[in-house]
Write a structure and sequence with these properties.
mainly alpha; about 90 residues
Length: about 90
């Protein structure tokens, strides 16, 4: 059965079928994503972890201390996600 190429989304479906049934991004897009994660996401997450630790241990402000756990948790979650993507 031949698909009607005038139908909405038919060109996208045809391209996905030719590429591999739409199993995610193409290898070049995936390589760019891995490069971006290793270049930006992991170091930013490490910086958030360091900032959260600094905020946790500083003796000057109770307001900064109150946000330290949220910043630390965001850094750890980001680092975990960045590690899974790499």
């Amino acid at each position: 059965m031949k698909q009607d190429l005038d139908a909405p989304g038919a060109a996208l479906r045809q391209a996905q079928c030719e590429r591999g049934k739409g199993d995610g991004p193409s290898p070049s897009v995936r390589a760019e994503l891995v490069e971006a994660v290793s270049r930006y996401a992991a170091p930013a997450s490490m910086a958030l972890i360091g900032l959260g630790l600094f905020m946790l241990m500083q003796p000057w402000s109770l307001d900064i201390y109150s946000y330290s756990f949220a910043v630390l948790l965001a850094g750890v979650a980001g680092y975990t996600i960045a590690g899974k993507l790499h």
